[in-house]
Amino acid sequence: MSFDKKRKLKTTVNNTSEICVGSIVRSRSGRDRGRVYAVISTETDEKGKLFARIVNGKGRNTANAKKKSVSHLETIGKETLTDVNDGQIVQLLEKYN
């Protein structure tokens, strides 16, 4: 599947159940469209919508994780994250950039 940075993808790419801690994702919409992130946690709001906390280790570090809807994310890989720090995230995401 091709990824176009200029337009949002209108179709659903992935099942929201496959995004979990350790997933490597690409943003599909918003200012950060096309950037690669790692998921460090997931949460559900009061309406039942699933959100992921994403980081990339540089601009978005673990202390300042971004909350993003999983419908705006595309899964591109899966890694194991045990003791998460910003240096590990940067090294991990270099493979996917």
Provide structural commentary.
The chain is built from 1 helix and 5 strands, in the order E-E-E-E-E-H. It is mainly β and 97 residues long. The protein has one helix at residues 86-94; strands at 23-27, 36-44, 50-55, 66-69, 73-78. Strand 2 (36-44) and strand 3 form a beta hairpin. It has a single domain, classed as SH3 type barrels (Roll), CATH 2.30.30.390.
Key descriptive features of the protein:
single chain; 97 residues; mainly beta; SH3 type barrels; 5-stranded antiparallel beta sheet; 1 helix; 5 strands; 31% strand; globular
Task: Please give the CATH architecture.
Answer: Roll
- Tally of structural domains: 1
**Parts with pLDDT < 50 across at least 5 consecutive residues:** none
Q: How many helices in DSSP terms?
A: 1
End-to-end gap: 17 Å
User: What's the main sheet like?
Assistant: 5 strands, antiparallel
- Strand content range: 25-35%
Write the CATH homologous superfamily: Hemimethylated DNA-binding domain
CATH class category: Mainly Beta
Judged by helices, strands and strand pairing, the structural class is mainly beta
Topology, pairings included?
Layout: E1 23-27, E2 36-44, E3 50-55, E4 66-69, E5 73-78, H1 86-94
Antiparallel strand pairs: 1-2, 1-5, 2-3, 3-4
Task: Give a quick summary of the entry.
Helix content is 9%, strand content 31%. With 97 residues, the chain is mainly beta.
